[in-house]
Amino acid sequence: FHRPPPMHSIRNPCCVALVALICLPATSAYLSAGSLFAGLPTNTARSCQSNVLSNLNMAEDPLLLRAARGETVERSPVWMMRQAGRHMQVYRDLVKKYPTFRERSEIPEVSTEISLQPWRSYGVDGCILFSDILTPLPGMGVEFDIEEKAGPKLKPMRTMESLEHMYVNSDWTKATPFVKQTLGDLRKTVGNSATVLGFVGLPYTLATYLVEGGTSKEYLEIKKMMYTQPQILHKMLETLAENIGNYANFQIDSGAQVIQIFDSWAGSLAPDDYDIFAAPYQRIVIDAIKKKHPETPVIMYIAKSGHLLERMAKSGVDIVSLDWTVTIDEARARMGTKVGLQGNLDPAVLYAPHHIIKERTEAILKMAGNRHHVMNLGHGIEATTPEANAKHFVDTVQAYRHA
Ligand code: CP3
């Protein structure tokens, strides 16, 4: 089955008894968690029910994982970048109760609940950890905050001395125990009905936040550093790379079945600078993952990456996640067929009438064929996307069969 069926569809009394048996402890655990979690729309019964059902289907790995490995699959799997979050009413309701991003992503019961929201509503084939690329920073000595309107906020690091409090962490279970618990709980809940994805930010993109102190349009501070004090930037990137490699492996050890690595802002670099400040540090992270977990598929995403396709294909990842500036055919012609593809519907298409969403989605599926492809958007879903349109996108992919 591909999505959790409604509770009333369970008719078999034996199954009901099983559900009751498994749900009871889970429900009482939630209740005993006390007022902090009171009112969480956990929909525990449904999760438990799908747990039971998916356990009956343990023989085969979940669809997205098999597709990510390059196996021939019965249909294309689908998920959406930034699928858990602001575009969903259930998420906005939870924000009222847990107003800061740090608590929503660092209280495991809450981050688990948010991670599950798009899986429950749309039946997506991938369930991504609700977290942020900045989440591991305190575990390496860098504090951050996320303001609801302005986004990430950090104390800018622009001198060698400012790097002194950064360190390489070797115990991520201690630094980010909530990530371990959330990934484990997600695996237990979704079973084989979806693939659990972990993710990390890559060194260059993380460094843009450390140097700029937050979101940036032109990345001028980090570029100034690149041209005037490259040794500071290299030192920062080196520490980030070592930490992120370990942190990605920790996520896999905790239950992540696929890892998506985001170098979202590396597309703003000239190719020569990309080769010096982005690619070598991506490589450190990818090599660390491949050394410890050669079987775990790695997907790399960069925004505005049309000019970087050949470089991304050579990075050592299993799948390149495309933005919408190239077609699947163009990407394959330039990258060869050894690397798989993810994407690449323009998230703005999700504002179109349903028949256009279907047409554009099916055009991509047809071009991709049944060959090493995971359907997704070309970047994160926009906050004002109507939920019915997101659902129509997912439904379209799941109904499509390759000739
Ligand atoms: O969008 C990307 O390019 C993906 C990589 C990335 C993430 N966070 C992953 C993420 C980047 C570049 C960030 C930085 C960041 N963190 C931003 C972008 C700001 C900028 O510079 O333009 C923001 C707004 C945050 C804070 C943040 N992260 C919020 C408020 C939320 C939840 C709400 C929402 O709808 O965005 C996140 C969640 C988040 N960041 C996820 C991921 C993969 C959630 C998991 C998912 O469902 O995909």
Shape category? globular
List of distinct ligands in this structure = coproporphyrinogen III
Question: How many structurally independent domains?
Answer: 1
What's the alpha carbon Rg, rounded to whole Å?
Answer: 21 Å
In terms of DSSP E residues, the strand content is: 5-15%
Number of helices: 16
Tell me the distance between the termini.
22 Å
Residue-averaged pLDDT: 89
Sketch the topology as an H/E string, one letter per element. Answer: HHHHHHEEEHHEHHHEHEHEHEHEH
Q: Specify the biggest β-sheet.
A: 7 strands, parallel
Number of strands: 9
Low-confidence stretches: 1-57
Proper CATH architecture: Alpha-Beta Barrel
CATH class: Alpha Beta
**What is the strand arrangement across the widest sheet?**
1-4-5-6-7-8-9
Structural class: alpha/beta
CATH-defined topology: TIM Barrel
Provide key terms for this protein.
403 residues; 7-stranded parallel β-sheet; single chain; disordered N terminus; TIM Barrel; alpha/beta; two-stranded antiparallel sheet; binds coproporphyrinogen III
Task: Describe the protein's architecture and organization.
48% of the residues lie in helices and 8% in strands. The longest helix has 25 residues, at 230-254. It is built from 16 helices and 9 strands. The chain has 403 residues and is of the alpha/beta class. It binds coproporphyrinogen III (CP3). Coproporphyrinogen III (CP3) binds next to strand 3. Belongs to the uroporphyrinogen decarboxylase family.
